TrEMBL record, chains A, B, C, D:
InterPro entries in the record: FAD-dep_OxRdtase (IPR006076), FAD/NAD-bd_sf (IPR036188), Gly_oxidase_ThiO (IPR012727)
Catalytic activity: glycine + O2 + H2O = glyoxylate + H2O2 + NH4(+)
Identification of the protein by name: glycine oxidase
Pfam families, alphabetized: DAO (PF01266)
Organism of origin: Paenibacillus crassostreae
Top-level taxonomy: Bacteria, Bacillati, Bacillota, Bacilli, Bacillales
Gene Ontology molecular functions: flavin adenine dinucleotide binding; glycine oxidase activity
Length: 382, 382, 382, 382
C-alpha cells in the first residue's frame, strides 16, 4: 500500500471516481478513498439521464456546464471501454418531456422555447405525433417536447468504469476507508488521516457528496449539503416498450439495454433513511401506469434508493479552498452528478495542473459563497 | 446413493416432504425425489395461512379434513423443531375477514353463521370493534368476522423442516432429479426411472403438484391439474402494524415474525409464467393501502410468485391407483397445501401401513373420479 | 400471444437464442420457447472462452467449424449492440496455455505444432517470457503456448443479447414454457404441444441441450446427450491481475471487464445436481493459487455451476431429421456452445431457407449417426 | 418521530439492541440509533457460539461474566420468541475442542483441567471416543475436550430479535442515523446530535463497536478500539455432518439448523476492509477439510465477513463516564459480543435504575482504565 501520492481523493462516487480517472490520465499519482464500496450511495442509484433539457430550464452557468459535459460522453465511453472493458451504456435516443394535462402544455412549451433559443434541437409533438413515435404512450397525453440529442448511461457502470480506468492507469483504490480529518500546515494541505493511518499528498479533493460537510467544516468552510432521498424501481420486458426517455411531472421512464426500464424517482428532502417505502413505490407505479399503460404486463425487477447531495442554491461546490492551497472541493451535484461528472473531473485536473485558461465561468460555484469570510486565523486554529 | 427403498416419493414440495417425514417417522426407508430444489415451486411462495375459515365456506369432506389437519400443527411444530432445529413459525393470533363495503357485510355474516354452526369460535366485530382490536385498519371497513383460532406458519420453513426431519430420520433426499417414468409389473408398482438411473421401491407416491399430470397419465390415470399463478410481496416495519391476519376480497395481509407482513395474492389461471408483473403488484398495493393505510410507511422487501396446483372440482387427488397396487397419489391441493400437509402425510403413511380405520371420508378425493373407467389392459399396455 | 409462426425453437439457451436471432434477422417469424428463464442452464454458467486452440487439438470438421464461428464474432458484437444496447464483452487479449511441469511441456508443444500447421498464429514462450508478459504468473510455470487471436465474451450477456435482438426483430419469446410433444403429419413437422396449448409452425428446431433427448426420442431419433456438471467461481480486484486467458490442466482463468476473473471449471459426468460443492471449489482454488499466487489477495465474488450437454463422440447433433421434414436438431455442443453459437444459428437459418451451398462439411454432425435406421413407419407410429 | 426519551442508545448491533431490549422491558422510553442497518457490522457476521470454554481459558472477571451471561439465554430465548415470533436458534449440543496433533493434546488438557476446577462439566475424549460421538471427524484427530453445556445461537436472529422486542415494548428504532456529537451541560449528558437533528435524553449509551472511539473522544475518554476482521463461510447438507460444535486451532465448525454449518473465522487485525479474500476462504477450507473430510460433498452456501471491536487488553469497556453523569459505555466485546449481550444489557439497565447490588466485579472493565486522568475542565472544554 502506497501512503504518498500526488493527490488524495476523498469519496468514491461518480464525482470522485471521475476525478481519479482524469488525474490518472494526466500522469498524476492518485489515491482514491471510499468509506464503503465504490458508488454505493447516490451514484449507483441514479437512472443515468444526461438530461440537460429536462431539468435545467434557464440559461446560466449550470446550463453551459451541463452542455459542455454532455459533449464529452461519446469520447469518454470509448476511452473507458478501451481501458476497462466496461461499456457505460451510452444511448442517444432522445427524450420526450410530456404534457399530461392541458395545464402542463404551457409549461412544457415555455421550456421548449428556451431550448430553441439556446440553440438546442428540440421540437413540439402533438398528441398524435407522440403516439406515432411511441405507440405505447397513453392517449391522455396532450403533447410533448422532443429533444433528439438527449441521452443516458448506466450509472453504476459509469462510476465503476471511472474507478477501474483510474486503477488501470496506476491509481490506488482503497475501499472501506473513512477519512477522519485533514492534514495541513502553513496554508497548504498535506494529507488526510483515515481510521488507520496518515496518507500524504500535495493535493486533496473532497468529493464525498452528502457526507462532505463535516470534513469541510474542519477546514473552516461552510458548505451546507443535505440529502434528498430518491426511490426508483425497474421493470423488464422482452421487447422495448419505449424507445426514448419519457419525462413527466410524476415520474420518468428511462429505457435501458435489453428491454429494461428504470422508473424514478421520489424526492424526500433531508432523509438519510435508505429504506424504500411502500408509499414511494406506489406513487411511482401509479404515475408510470398513467403514462405507459402497457407497463402492467412488464416484469417487476427490483426497487432501490439513493441520497442525492443537494445544496441551498441548487448549485454544486466547485473550486479550491480560499485559504488552504491544494484543497479542492467538488460536491453537491444533486441530480446532475452523472451528467456533470466528466466536466468536473476535467476541471479539477486542470486546477491541479494550474491550467489558467477556463472556458466556463465558475464564479457561481465558489466553495466559499455560503459563509462569512473566515479569517485566516480561524482556519489555521482548527 | 441408495437405489432401493420402501417408498419413493416424487415431488419435494410441502406435500411430498410431509409424506417423507411421516413415513420416515414410522421407520420406512424413504427416497424423496425433487426435480429442482426442495419447495421451489408453490410451497415456498405461500403465505402460510392455516385458513380453515377464510376459504372453506361450506360443510363437507374438505372442511373436515382442514380442521383435522389444523389440529396437528402444535405437536408437529415441536417435533420438527426437535429433529431439525427449524422453527416453522406457528402463530395463532386469529384472523379478521373484513367486509369492505356494506354489500360485503351480508356475505361475511353468512360465512360466520356457517362457522358457528360447525362449532368454530367465530364472532362478528363492528367497525368500531375492528379498529379497537387493530387500530391501523381503515375507517372504511364496515365490520369483520374474527376467528380466534386461525393461525399461520412460515411456508418455506415448513417445507424445509419436513424434508430435513425426514433426512434426520434416515430418508435420502435427491434434489435435481426428474422422474421420467414409472416401473411396474403385474399390477404392482416397482419403482421409477429418473434422468440417470432406475430406483426401486414397493410403493411410489406422486406428489408433484402442477407437474403430476404426465406421470399419472403414464399409469392410465386422468387427473387434470392446472396452475393458478399467485403473486405476493412483503413489507417490513419495526413495530407490528397488525396483530391478526387480515383477509379481504382484494388481498390478505399476514403478520410474520419481526414486523414483516406478507401481502397476497393474485390468481391467474392456467399460467406457468413465473414472472411477477407490474400489474399484479400494483393491484395488491392498492388493495393493501385501502385496508391498512399506514402500510405506505413500511419498507418494501420483495415480490415473488408461485404456481398453485388446481383441479377441476377444487379437491385434491388423494388415494391409491385403482389398478396399480402401491402407486399413491397426493396432489392438487391448490391454496391449501400448507394447511393440509400434515393430514396428507399421515394418511399416505396410514395407507402404506394398510391401516384400515380412517376417520375421514375420502371418497370425494378418489384419484379416478375424473375418468372413464380404464380397463386393466389399457393400463398394462402403456 | 401469437400461436402460428414460421419456426418454433425449443430451448432458450445460447444455441436456441442464436438461431432465433439469425432467423429473425432474415425475416422469419419466430417463436422461442424456454421451459425456465433464458440461458438459465449451461449458457449463463459458461466462462465465455472462444477457445479454438485450447480444447480442439486435432484437425477435422469441429476445428473448421470453430474457426469459422470465431470469425463471426466481431461483426456479431456490433450488430447485437446496435439492436439491443447489450455489450457482449468481446475481448481479444490472447490465451496462454501453460505447461505447469516439465512433463506438460511436450504436450503443449505438440498442440502448438498443430496450431501452426493449421495456420494459426501461435508461439512458444519460455518461462521467463511468460512472466514478462504476465508478471503475476507463478515462477513454477515451465513455459506456455501463446495464441494471440484467442478471445472471449460474457456468456450470460451473449445469450441474453441474442434473444433480445430476436425480440427486437419481431420474435416472440415465451419463458416458462415446456414443450411436451411434437406435432407432425405425413412426414412433416407441424408444431408443438406445450403445457397449455398447441403452437404451429412449418419448422421446429430442437435446441434444448441436456434436455433434448426425450423430445427427439418421440420423433424416433436416438441422440444420447448427458450432462457434464461444471463448477466455477469468480474474483474481483481493482487492478487487472492478468491480461490474457490462462489455461492449464487444473483450471482456467479468464480476465473479464473491471478486474473480474472467472475461474473454471470442474467436470463431473452424468450429474444433474446443480449444487456447488466444497470439494469442487477447493480444487479450483488450489489450482488457481498454483498458477497465479497473487489471487489470494483478490476478493471472493461468487460460485455457480452449469450442466454442459455432452454426446457420445463429443460432437454436436446438427441437421434435419431424416424422415420428418422441417424438424431440425442443434444440440449437444458441450463446452463449445458459446463459441459455436453464431455458426450454428447461421447454419440452421440456411437450412430453413434451403440454401444449398455450404462451406462446411457437416456429415460428422448428422443427427441419425447413433441409430439403427428407423423405418418411416416407426417414426409415424409414435 | 419522538425526539425526547429516557435513554438514547448509539449503535444497533447486538450490544446496543440488547440494552434497548432490557431497558424497554423495565419501562424506560428508549431511542435506538444505528448509522446503517441493525446488526450490519460484527453482529450479523458472528457464528453465534456461546463459547465460554473455547476462548476463555483463565479464571477472572471475564470468565465469571461469560458464565453468568450464558445462564441467561434459555429464558431470554423464550421471552424474545414470545415478543417477536423470532426463534434465536439456541442449541445446546456441546462443543468438542479437538487436538489435531500430539503437541496440541497438552494444551487442550490444560484447558480441560481449568474448566473442571471451575466446576464446569467437561471431559477428555480419546481419538476413538471422538469418532464414536462424531463419526465424520478425521482419524488424524488425537482427542478432544468435550463441554456438554456449550451452546450457540443464530447471531443475526439474536440481534434482530432484541431490537424488535424493544420496538414491541415501545422503543423507537432509527436506522440510517449517524450520531455526530454528544450534548451535555454541567457534568450531565443531555442528548446527541445526529446528521439531521438534536435528540434529548437523560441517559446516553455508546455501543457502537469499532466505531465508538471518536464519539467517546469527544467526551474526553480514551477508549482505543480497533477492528479485527473475520471471514466465514457456510455449507449445506441434507443430513447433519456433525452434532456438536467442533473447535480447533485452524477453524471452528458450528452446526446450525437444517443441516447448515458455519465455518469460521480468520483474524486480521486493524483491517476495516470488508472484502472476503480468496486467501481467507482458502485457509478456512483447508482447515475444515482436515477436521471434517466429508465436508467436500457439502454444498457451498456463501461467504461473508465482519469487524470485531477489539481493545488493548482484550476486555470490553463497561461503565459510566467518570465525569459526565448519564453517559454509559458498553463496547469492545471483540468475539464475545453475542455471548455477553444479555449480561451487558442487564447491567446497563441496572445502572440506569441505580441498582447498587452487583454480583459481578466490574473494575476490570472501567471505561477510564486507559487514560491519564482528565481534569473536569478538559472534558467540559470540548
Amino acid at each position: 500500500m502506497v501512503r504518498k501520492a500526488d493527490v488524495i481523493i476523498v469519496g468514491g462516487g461518480v464525482i470522485g471516481s471521475s476525478i481519479a480517472y482524469y488525474m490518472s490520465a494526466r500522469g498524476m499519482k492518485v489515491i482514491l478513498l471510499e468509506r464503503d464500496r465504490l458508488g454505493s450511495q447516490a451514484s449507483n442509484a441514479a437512472a443515468g439521464m444526461l438530461a440537460v433539457q429536462a431539468e435545467i430550464t434557464e440559461a446560466g452557468p449550470m446550463y453551459d456546464m451541463a452542455r459542455a459535459s454532455r459533449a464529452l460522453f461519446p469520447q469518454l465511453a470509448m476511452d473507458l471501454k478501451e481501458l476497462t472493458g466496461i461499456d457505460i451504456g451510452l444511448k442517444r435516443k432522445g427524450m420526450l418531456r410530456v404534457a399530461a394535462t392541458e395545464a402542463d402544455v404551457g409549461e412544457v412549451q415555455r421550456i421548449l422555447d428556451f431550448q430553441k433559443k439556446e440553440g438546442e434541437r428540440a421540437e413540439w409533438l402533438s398528441a398524435k405525433q407522440v403516439r406515432q413515435q411511441e405507440p405505447g404512450i397513453s392517449s391522455e397525453i396532450q403533447g410533448a417536447m422532443f429533444v433528439e440529442e438527449d441521452s443516458h448511461v448506466d450509472a453504476p457502470e459509469l462510476c465503476y468504469a471511472y474507478a477501474k480506468a483510474a486503477a488501470a492507469l496506476g491509481a490506488q483504490i482503497n475501499e472501506f476507508t473513512e477519512v477522519k480529518s485533514l492534514l495541513y500546515t502553513q496554508g497548504r494541505i498535506t494529507g488526510v488521516v483515515t481510521g488507520e493511518e496518515e496518507l500524504f499528498a500535495d493535493q486533496v479533493v473532497v468529493a464525498s457528496g452528502t457526507w462532505s460537510g463535516p470534513l469541510l467544516a474542519q477546514a473552516g468552510l461552510t458548505c451546507p449539503i443535505y440529502p434528498v432521498k430518491g426511490e426508483c424501481f425497474s421493470v423488464l420486458s422482452h421487447s422495448q416498450l419505449i424507445q426514448s426517455t419519457i419525462f413527466s411531472d410524476g415520474c420518468y421512464l428511462v429505457p435501458k439495454k435489453g428491454g429494461r426500464i428504470v422508473v424514478g424517482a421520489t424526492m424526500i428532502e433531508h432523509s438519510y433513511d435508505r429504506r424504500v417505502t411502500i408509499g414511494g413505490i406506489s406513487k411511482l407505479l401509479e404515475a408510470a401506469k398513467r403514462i405507459l399503460p402497457d407497463i402492467v404486463d412488464a416484469e417487476w425487477e427490483q426497487a432501490w434508493c439513493g441520497l442525492r447531495p443537494q445544496t441551498m442554491d441548487g448549485l454544486p461546490y466547485l473550486g479550491e479552498h480560499p485559504k488552504l492551497k491544494g484543497l479542492y472541493v467538488a460536491t453537491g451535484h444533486y441530480r446532475k452528478g452523472i451528467l456533470l461528472s466528466p466536466i468536473t473531473g476535467k476541471l479539477v485536473a486542470d486546477w491541479a495542473e494550474d491550467k489558467s485558461e477556463q472556458v466556463l465561468s465558475l464564479a457561481s460555484f465558489r466553495v466559499d459563497r455560503h459563509q462569512n469570510d473566515p479569517s485566516e486565523e480561524e482556519v489555521m486554529s482548527l
